[in-house]
Structure formats: C-alpha cells, structure tokens
Design brief:
single chain; 8-stranded parallel β-barrel; 18% strand; elongated
Length: 536
Amino acid sequence: MSPWMSTVRPVVWSVAGNDSGAGAGLQADLRAFDACGVHGCTVVATLTAQNSRAVQRVEAVSASMLDAQLAALAEDLRPRVIKTGLLGSAEAVQVLAGWVRRLRAQVPDQPVALVIDPVWRASTGASMAGEGLRQALLSELLPLATVITPNRAEAAWLLGRSSPLPEMAQDLAALGPSGVVITGGDGTDLRMDADLACDWLHSTEASGWLFAPRLLAPHNHGTGCVFASTLASALAHGFAVADAVVLAKMMVTDALRHGYAAGSGAGPVSPHIGFAARPENLPGFRPDELRHALPMLAPPEAFAPERGLDLYAVVDSAAWVERLARAGVRTVQLRLKPDVALARGVDLRVEIARCVALQKRFDLKFYVNDHWALAIEAGAYGVHVGQEDLDQVDVAAIRHAGLRLGLSTHSLWELARAWALRPSYIACGPVHATTTKDMPWQPQGVHNLGWWRQMLPTLPVVGIGGFTPERLEAAARTGVDGLAVLSGITAASDPEAAVQAYQDALRRGRSEAAWVAPRWPRPSLRGRWGGENTTA
C-alpha cells in the first residue's frame, strides 16, 4: 500500500537529465517519487557525463527520441503531473510544450499539472543551458506552468536581472505560472539570518517566506530536484500549491539530514518515506507584510501553552457563557461578529465585559474571537483568531498584555504560519463538515487531526467543527488538548444534557489505547492548483 494511504499510486513524469553519478536529475527524482508514494516515469531529455565532483559533458537527446518517449508513456501511463529538469535544448522545450497541451486537451476536467525546475548551472558551476533554451522556456513552457521552482540564480537568469525575491517571483508569475517558489538554500545573499534557509513562495493561496533552520550538510547534491519532485508528487496527491510547497520544504530538510558520501565530492541527499511524520521538519511561514521582521535570530517569544482545554464551547452571547459555565464547561469562546451584534442591538464592549466577569466568577478560560483590542481592554483570558483576520491583529500587544492566543489552521501553509508565531494553541478544522459558515476547505477528519497533534508535540492542539458526541469520542483518542463544539450544544433541545454527553464522550475517548498517528496528512483545500493555466 502507498504511504499516502492509497492502493493506486498516481503517475508523475520526470522529463530531465540523466545523472551518471546518480546524485541529481532523473535518479534523484525517482528516489523522491518513491518516498512520496507516486509512480515515477522517466523521460531522458539530456545525457550527462558527471561524477560527484564535476559535470564533464552535456548532450541533449534528439527531439524525435524525446517525442517517442513521451508518446509511449501517453499511451499507457497518463500523468497527473509532469516535472521538468534539465531539458537541454529549445527543441526539447517545444516538443514537451506540445505534449502538455495535447494531454490537457484530451481530458479537460482532469488537468495535468506542470512543475518546472529550470536547471541553469550545475552545483560545480558548469553551464547546462544557453540563451536559446532560456527563450524557449519563457515563451513556450512558463505560460503552461503550474509551478516553477528556480533558485535565486536561476530566477535571475530567466528574467535577465537580479532583484529582491518577491519582485522576481511576481515577474515570473506574470509570465504564466500560478505558483512560484524561489529557493534560498543555495547560500546566496538574501540579507537574512544565516541560520535560516528561506524560500519565497508566491501562489494563489499565500505568498511569503517559508523558512527552516539551515543545515550545514556536506552532502547536498540534488536538493533542487528533490524539492521539485516532492512538490510534483504532492500535487499528484491533490494538495494545493502552497501546501505542496510546505511538503517539499519538509522533504528537503529531512533529505539533507540523511545525505551520504558516494564519491570524493558532495554526496546526494536521501529522501525517506517518514519525512512528513517528523515534527522537526515542519517549517515556519511569514507573509509578505512581515518580511522586514526577518532575520529571525531565534523563534519568537512563545505564548504560554494552554493545556487542559478539554470540552471547548463556542457561543455567541454572555448568557450562553453563563449557562454553560453552570453546566460545568470551563473553556468558552465568545464568537460574535460585529454585524450580528449590531443587528441584535448588542454593545460588543459591554458583552465582552460581562463575559470577563463570568470568567472570574467561574474560573473560566474565556477566549474572545477576533476582537483582540476589546479582549485586552476587558482583561479576557485569551483571544482566538482566524487566519483571515490575522493580518489585522497586533500579536505583540496580545503577548505584552499577558493574554493567551489561539490560532485557527485549515491547511499546511496555515499550520506553518501559526507555528511560526508559537501561540498558546493551534486549532485544526473543520474536522467534520459544518454549516456554521461557508468554507473552501474539505473536512480534515480524525486522520489530519491526529497528524496535527503529532507535528506539534510542544503546542496544544484543538479540534474544531462538526462534532457529535460519537465523533468527539473518536477525536479524543488522538490525544488533542481540546475539542470545540458549536451548535451541537446551543442547538440541542437540552443543552445541559448535551454538555454531559460530550463530557462523557471526551472521557471515554481519552481512556482508550494510545493513538497511532498517520505518516501523512491528507489534502484539505478544495480544488487542486488554481489558475487558468492548469487547463490551458
């Protein structure tokens, strides 16, 4: 069975160079594909004579031979994703572009994604691409691309100039790709902390810095290939671009740790199946508006971790806070949107102050949803913030005031963003389908909730969304610190009885055998890649 929990492995093609030293190129791609649970097919575009020290010769295969390889695969092994590496010639680019268009036209409702790793120079400095190939990439292949993954030098080569990474990513995206990742792990001057490997992500879901501790590994051959191949594999499994990039970052971080010597030069990195189950591989993410806060010489000062959240009730009035406090609930969140408060004639400041009085009276962990300034003013226990509102929140002010902070996450890139802030807890949701609001996410399920818990051993995790007592009992087996219930209590005919049912389910779930966490997350964002070019 595939480690991605499927008996059928999606097919991914690599159209790239053959590395006779087996450190990069098609050989590295195949190692990454296998670790990611996809069936990798190889199309040789370029032959190289190289070892661990140098590239001695590069020779492109003929356009007719390249076309024959692609035609053979198209008959029997249709890809979900095509990943490119060293293409060798402008003619090769034209042949491949023709096949991408043909494959997309054949089954328009099952678009073939295209990941471009624009190889320019070998790590030894040898040139592997000329001006003709550059122009062909710009005119023929980039307009068809789903994601392009250059390092800084390759991005500058494609654009004919060097500039800050966000600007180069924006300019490359204007040429067609719906996603651009400019990797910074190659040691170029990014004016950032030397202890961090920082990549710039530009996508429809998110844009910003993705970072992890820099590993000074002597065996680092093939990092670019492994990154792009893992990204392609994640797309094939249905992940959105930003989430696929997070997985690619995790793979490279892990593969660097397992690199080994093969010859007398730099050895290859080594992809391993378990890369997505190791918490130390989880990167951080900072969006565009925080880029000037870099470099991050150390992780930000952490909020106080919030353990023992248990049954976590989400309500819309102080009256409900009091009623559930009397029923034995000790963690409560007030979620009251300004337009709803206005329609009810409720003064938010007064309502929050009433809840804080109840917080003191019943010794509650009382969280205010979104209204962080009013929460600070009233002296609330904590603030819960959704990702869509995080840009408007003064996190430093919340920390300075001594309040706890909870952050919602629905996907891998949001998890990386929340992790970078080290909040009091991180919420994973929706665990089950919910009707409380229209959301672009698929239900996470207990599978992803357990994976979230595994990846955050030092931070509390709260599951949220769609719980019945039976579902809550199953979720409690994962060992999460809290489980949030919304309408399951307030819409019940007997809310006090509902509280008791949920409390009993929580106790039963926690008394069961320890949860065996999954090795892999499952996609949670609806749709695959976004952008019109995926069906062009």
